[in-house]
Amino acid sequence: MSELSELYQQVILDHNKKPRNFRKIESPTHTAEGHNPLCGDQLTIYLDLVNDEVKDVSFEGSGCAISKASASMMTQAVKGKSKQQVEDLFKGFHLMVTDDSETPEELGNLRIFEGVREFPVRVKCATLPWHTLHAAINKEELVSTE
Amino acid sequence: MSERIVTAVDTVVSPPVEGPWNVERIRADFPVLHQKVNGKPLVYLDNGASSQVPQVVIDRGSVYIEQEHSNIHRGVHYLSQRATTAYEGAREKVKRFINARESRECIFVRGATEGINLVMHGYGRKFIDAGDEIIISAMEHHANIVPWQMLCEEKGARLRVIPMNDAGELLIDEYEGLLNERTKLVGVTHVSNALGTINPIKEMIAQAHKYGVPVLIDGAQSAPHMPVDVQDLDCDFYVFSGHKMYAPTGSGIIYGKAELLERMNPFQGGGDMIRTVTFEKTTYADLPNKLEAGTPAIASQIGLGAAIDYLNSIGRQEAAAYEAELLRYATERVSAIEGVRIIGTAKHKASVLSFVIDDIHPHDIGTILDQEGIAVRAGHHCAQPVMQRFNVPATARASFAFYNTKEEIDVLAQTIEKVIEIFS
User: Fold this and answer.
1) Which of A9, A128, B260, B293 would bridge with B273, disulfide CB 3.0–4.6 Å?
2) Which residues, 6 or more positions from B42, have their beta carbon under 8 angstroms from its beta carbon?
3) Range of the domain at A51
4) Is residue B1 scored above 50 in pLDDT?
């Protein structure tokens, strides 16, 4: 169960149970919906982007523990960041879960998702919130990781 | 090599098993079962998606590739004749397997999905028009929904859906209310892949026939698990996939009553389905060739014939009885776990145990079970309307075959408990 315990760490289980920023923003500047038809994950990202800075970010939806925890921790990680910093985090996160190279320090506590790379079918669960956020920032309304 | 040539034509299988079900002896026939996954013995409970292939079927496919590989129906040479004999021999086996009147009523397709699409294109597009109605059920696989939606969109026809109750049983009274003079086709699954429900199709077929309406039965989940007699059912079309019944992928059958198949348009045009071709006009071959354009999956379809021999050799009734006992035991074990809810509790069920656990997504259940070597399906099972009906995003599904054991079900139950513990 060693790889498994790396995937389902306490922090991830905690974010799954009590997702942070799990709410709707009433008049967001940006929003996008993400679907993973393979497992039925679906979430909506709400974003308040003011002068290219993330003033507020939240999400709603349903999904597996990995996608929910990823969304929850993502909202914490990107709040207060510039648009460019968010895009850098997205790239870094994506690389971390798909590539065997060393994970950059800048990802901070998002590094907890490194174990996902051992579970190729779950990569889409972890990256769905990030793809959806990326789409929201770039004004695409619907993404799918299928 | 002469001896191997004999085995090439008729698959040699073990004599029927006598006495109680000897599962260890059966398991010995399936090489894939004897491996470890993540360090644990493989517990294969995803038979509803694809079942495993016994050695005799693998061998039969190999004999074709090693000794007979050539095209069918068009060679005067020795290998082509042997391949044609084997291929048409498989069709004969299918005919007996489902008790069709004639082998030309058994059309080889690459699976149930292709079979339903063949009926949609060949029958539906020819005989269904604006204002007509097609009835399907609330528990259909996408394969028996989407082609009909496409047809309705094209023709301006209307799709009507037989509802089901909370146990996952079709409401037969409602079905009778849906039938009328506008109804042009009924498409219904024999056994639900997501719920396991066995539908009362014989009665449903008789109802439709009162209105002169042909009925297509999706047998993808029934052909592997119970004896099927298309004449007794009096169904007009019956479709199933080889890879769900111990044969290779790419094999499958659409059975149709000869008079219907004859009236239908061809599905695909090409080689093997014609009588004469000029640039002005083409005339079509007789059944079954009319509906089988191009070179088929010869090795796979011959494999389907060998799988039928295998099923007959182990005893289909006995296998079905053993599977029923497995399902009973699994239902008892899994439903006893606190927090687990079974989705699909019909009185008559086969082979499928779908379940959800409070606050744990099926995908997480699937990953954790996989780490313990247990293969289940987690998702919507290509039946999203069923998920919506039961208000769940997805389910975890264990689906059984006659080579599974009660010990494997114990491992499943223990691991589900472990999943709950991890998430507690």
Assistant:
1) B293
2) B32, B33, B34, B35, B36, B373, B375
3) 2-144
4) no
Intra-chain end-to-end CA distance of chain B, in Å: 62
pLDDT of amino acid A146? 54
The correct answer on CATH 3.90.1150.10 for the domain covering B316-423 is yes
Whether omega for the bond prior to residue B288 falls within 30 degrees of 0, making it cis, is yes
- A25 token code pair: 């923003």
User: What is the least distance, in Å, from the CA of B192 to any CA of chain A?
Assistant: 19
User: Which one of A7, A39, A65 has the shortest CB-CB distance to B378?
Assistant: A39
Could you list the beta-strand ranges (E) of B344-406. 352-357, 374-375, 377-379, 395-399
Q: Does the pLDDT of residue B5 top 60, yes or no?
A: no
> Topology of B78-312 in CATH?
Aspartate Aminotransferase; domain 2 (3.40.640)
Chain A to chain B, count of Cβ pairs less than 8 Å apart? 52
In chain B, where does the domain assigned CATH 3.90.1150.10 lie? 316-423
Give the pLDDT band of residue B74 (cuts 50, 70, 90).
confident
A122–B371 C-beta distance less than 8 A: no
**Which amino acid appears at position B385 of this protein?**
P
Burial class for B331, CB neighbours closer than 10 Å (0-12, 13-18, 19+): middle
C-alpha distance from B409 to closest chain A C-alpha (Å)? 20
Instruction: Find the residue in B nearest to A62 (Cα).
Output: B393
Contact B403, B27 (CB under 8 A): yes
> How confident is the model over A31-62, as pLDDT tens digits?
999 998 777 788 999 999 999 999 999 999 99
Token pair in block for residue B103: 């082998």
Question: Is B382 an annotated catalytic residue?
Answer: yes
Residue A10 above 60 pLDDT? yes
Say which CATH number the domain at A107 has. Answer: 3.90.1010.10
Average pLDDT value for residue range B209-233: 98
The predicted complex's ipTM stands at 0.89
CB contact under 8 A, A39 and B423: no
**What six digits make up the tokens of B186?**
């009924």
Q: Which of B106, B152, B235, B382 is catalytic?
A: B382
For A64, the closest of B364, B371, B380 (CB atoms) is B364
Q: Which residues of A touch B (CB under 8 A)?
A: 1, 3-4, 7-8, 13, 16-17, 37-42, 62-66, 119, 121-122, 125
Instruction: Kindly state the percentage of chain B with pLDDT values over 70.
Output: 96
- The pLDDT of residue A142 is 65
Which residues in chain A are closer than 8 Å to B361, comparing Cβ atoms? 39, 41, 62-65
Mean pLDDT of A4-22: 91
Query: What is the average pLDDT across B273-285?
Result: 93
B6-10, B122-126, B378-382: the lowest-pLDDT one: B6-10
Model confidence at B3: pLDDT above 60: no
Q: Where in chain B is the domain with CATH 3.40.640.10?
A: 78-312
